[in-house]
Design goal:
The structure is a single chain. By secondary structure, the chain is an alpha/beta fold. It has a single domain, classed as Rossmann fold (3-Layer(aba) Sandwich). Helices cover 37% and strands 23% of the residues. The chain has eight helices and seven strands. A seven-stranded mixed beta sheet has the order 3-2-1-4-5-7-6, sandwiched between helices. Helix 1 runs antiparallel to helix 3. 44% of the residues are buried.
Length: 187
């Protein structure tokens, strides 16, 4: 496995800039990614994590809601970020139904027509019944990852993320049970 120490140093440098993802989780993802970290990345984001990931990889970000989008633009050095605001119609309270119906929210064509070396599902929010949850993001991850790519699912310890990701991707190749569980699949 390729360990890209320069990417880890970048993550450490910007971690204090307000990134919600814990440093050890970012380091684990970078280490597991190997040379894929230098490829094309799609991040379904929550919080300010795009700030850190934009400095570590060539990433495109999908955010949920104007509040999250506005928060990113209040941060420094955001001019080069490729971010798209998507309004999700899904809800955590109806995730089983959304999965059964394969509910996909519309993504911009620039995202849907590309394929990615890394897909990180760290959003939209999924911690309450009225949150959009991640069914649609997980369905998109399955469609948009390249052959040989890697998918990471954040909060894999939650019922929705674990059940849906396992149904779509099978048993994870690796699991990091740090502050919050992240699972990884090589495709």
């Amino acid at each position: 496995m390729i360990v890209n120490e320069s990417k880890i140093q970048l993550a450490r440098k910007v971690y204090g800039d307000g990134c919600l993802m814990k440093l050890q989780q970012a380091e684990w993802i970078i280490r597991q990614s190997g040379d894929k970290i230098n490829g094309k990345t799609l991040l379904f984001a929550a919080g300010e994590s795009p700030l850190m990931w934009s400095r570590v990889t060539d990433a495109t970000f999908v955010l949920h809601g104007k509040k999250a989008y506005r928060r990113i633009f209040e941060l420094p050095d955001n001019q080069a970020l490729r971010m798209y605001n998507v309004n999700y119609s899904t809800k955590v309270e109806s995730w089983q139904n959304d999965l059964q119906k394969q509910v996909l929210n519309t993504l911009p064509p620039e995202i849907e027509q590309a394929r990615y070396d890394l897909v990180l599902v760290n959003g939209p929010c999924g911690h309450s019944a009225n949150s959009p949850g991640r069914v649609s993001a997980l369905l998109h991850a399955r469609m948009l990852v390249k052959d040989g790519g890697i998918i990471f699912v954040y909060d894999y310890d939650r019922e929705l993320e674990k059940t849906v990701a396992t149904e779509l991707f099978g048993t994870p190749d690796e699991i990091d049970e740090g502050v919050s569980t992240i699972a990884m699949w090589r495709r």
